[in-house]
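Postdoc handover notes: sequence design on the structure in folder B. Input C-alpha cells:
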C-alpha cells in the first residue's frame, strides 16, 4: 500500500512539475512575442 501511494505521489508531483514548467515556458514565450509586437507597433 505504501509503495503504490509513493508511486502515485511521485507521478503526480512529476506531472505537476512538468505542467508548471511547460506552461511557464509557453507563457513566457507568448508574453515575449506580445512584448516584441507592442514594441514594433510604437
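Designed sequence:
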Amino acid at each position: 500500500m505504501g509503495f503504490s501511494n509513493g508511486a502515485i505521489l511521485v507521478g503526480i508531483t512529476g506531472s505537476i512539475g512538468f505542467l508548471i514548467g511547460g506552461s511557464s515556458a509557453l507563457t513566457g514565450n507568448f508574453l515575449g512575442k506580445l512584448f516584441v509586437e507592442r514594441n514594433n507597433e510604437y
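Context for whoever picks this up: The first helix runs from residue 2 to 41. Don't rerun without checking with the PI first.
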